[in-house]
Amino acid sequence: MNRVILLRHGESMWNLENRFTGWTDVDLSTNGVEEARLAGKILKNEGYQFDKAYTSVLKRAIRTLWIVEEMMDLVWLPVEKRWELNERHYGSLQGLNKAEMAKQYGAELVHQWRRGYGIEPPPLDNSDPRHPRFDRRYAGLAPEALPASESLKKTLQRVIPCWKQCILPDIAAGKELIIVAHGNSLRALYKHLEGLSDQEVMELNIPTGIPLVFELDSAFRPTAHYYLADSEKSQEAIGDTAH
Ligand SMILES: O=C(O)[C@H](O)COP(=O)(O)O
């Protein structure tokens, strides 16, 4: 059986403050550190072993992975950091409070921005210092690859090539992998794996800090998936993420 573990980073400072984050490089909150510790502890206690990890180039995911590695005594683990696993770029919403935006623009539009498949939040201006073209970690990328905002669809269009070209060959080679990423990059991957419709993915929420196991058949199609938490806890966490 092939298997891959997906993990959304622990709660970040801006999750805590209910602000749109996207590509903003905010760190974990104290609670997020605890969530990452617990995820590592659960993975260790359940006997998981890894050969390699994938993560994004954003510190909330990277630090979550570091903490998991420490908890599992796996600090030697090879890690591949891929910008394609970053959170969806939230455009000019980044930094703004989600509840205040719902008051200003209406809950329905904000819900569409957050959970709709094709809708793109308002973009960052090209001259905005927060535009990724000013960030050296993206310096090697073609300018047209750098988003100023992304729908979930656009996010999926970068996540899935990374899945197919980098991650799947590692799984095919028999490696046990953990992918530590973000709410929307993982929603995109989940949509692809489970073949969710554009409508179905609107209902999908991935909680912070709870390992999600995908079992795959020999053609890498999912045969099962489950959270490593009791169902009450994961349902509560999924509910929290939705709001
Ligand atoms: O980027 C963000 O704001 C969060 O990590 C994900 O936010 P969402 O639940 O509003 O998509």
UniProtKB/TrEMBL annotation:
Residues reported to bind substrate: 8-15, 21-22, 60, 87-90, 98, 114-115, 183-184
One of the GO BP terms on file: glycolytic process
Site feature: Transition state stabilizer: H182
Keyword field: Gluconeogenesis, Glycolysis, Isomerase
Pathway the protein contributes to: Carbohydrate degradation; glycolysis; pyruvate from D-glyceraldehyde 3-phosphate: step 3/5
Residues the record marks as active site: H9, E87
InterPro entries in the record: His_Pase_superF_clade-1, His_PPase_superfam, PG/BPGM_mutase_AS, Phosphogly_mut1
Enzyme Commission number(s) of this protein: 5.4.2.11
GO molecular function: phosphoglycerate mutase activity
Reaction catalyzed: (2R)-2-phosphoglycerate = (2R)-3-phosphoglycerate
Top EC class for this record: isomerase
Summary of subunit composition and partner proteins: Homodimer.
Stated family: Belongs to the phosphoglycerate mutase family. BPG-dependent PGAM subfamily.
Function: Catalyzes the interconversion of 2-phosphoglycerate and 3-phosphoglycerate.
Name of protein: 2,3-bisphosphoglycerate-dependent phosphoglycerate mutase
Protein's gene: gpmA
